[in-house]
């Protein structure tokens, strides 16, 4: 059983570390590995804009760089810094592509406003017909 509330709590906490001088839009993510570990991440912006890294990719890259490659779920929260979260956000297209590299279609994406108010999707829901490594390998 996946503890959705714990993942959301970690994503909310990760939001505090967002580096967002340009958008002031703070995002936090918490990624659950199949081995039961949780890697969190926040968005990291850049004056050149393009190098900006979303919270979801920060979490994935932290995990993969520590040897993790199998994932069960990710929780995502986002909104203007210093305001309560008023919308459900889902990973951007680039993050969906990165998730698809490591996660199967049943991977769970939790889009939350808070620990008690969230929506559940699968990667298949959000990223159907994706380009996959099977085409390249
Ligand atoms: N952002 C994320 O971190 N994750 C998303 O799913 C959507 C967008 C970030 C990128 C940028 O720093 C800010 O939110 C505004 O787009």
Protein architecture, described:
- By secondary structure, the protein is α+β, with helices and mostly antiparallel strands.
- The protein has five helices and five strands.
- It has a five-stranded mixed sheet with strand order 2-1-3-4-5, with helices on both faces.
- β1 (25-33) and β2 (38-42) form a beta hairpin.
- The protein starts with a helix and ends with a helix.
- Bound molecules: tetrahydrodeoxyuridine (THU).
- The site of tetrahydrodeoxyuridine has 15 residues, from β1 and α2.
- Residues 20, 23, 25, 27, 43, 45, 52, 54-56, 78, 89, 91-92, 95 line the site of tetrahydrodeoxyuridine (THU).
Quickly describe the structure:
The chain is of the alpha+beta class and 137 residues long. It has 5 helices and 5 strands. 28% of the residues lie in helices and 27% in strands.
Q: From the alpha-carbon coordinates, what is the Rg to the nearest angstrom?
A: 14 Å
Largest sheet: 5 strands, mixed
What's the β-strand tally?
Answer: 5
Strand proportion, as a percent range, falls in 25-35%
Topology order in helix (H) and strand (E) letters: HEEHEHEEHH
Strand ordering within the main sheet: 2-1-3-4-5
Shape: globular
Structural class assignment: alpha+beta
């Amino acid at each position: 059983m996946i503890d959705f509330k714990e993942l959301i709590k970690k994503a909310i906490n990760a939001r505090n570390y967002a580096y967002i001088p340009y958008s002031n839009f703070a995002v936090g993510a918490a990624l659950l590995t199949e081995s039961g570990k949780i890697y969190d991440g926040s968005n990291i912006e850049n004056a050149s804009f393009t190098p900006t890294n979303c919270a979801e990719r920060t979490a994935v890259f932290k995990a993969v760089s520590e040897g993790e490659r199998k994932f069960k779920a990710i929780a995502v929260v986002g909104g203007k810094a210093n305001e309560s979260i008023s919308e459900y956000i889902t990973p951007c297209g680039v993050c969906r592509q990165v998730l698809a590299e490591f996660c199967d279609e049943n991977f769970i994406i939790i889009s939350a406003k808070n620990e008690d108010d969230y929506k559940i999707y699968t990667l298949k829901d959000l990223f159907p017909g994706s380009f996959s490594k099977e085409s390249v390998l």
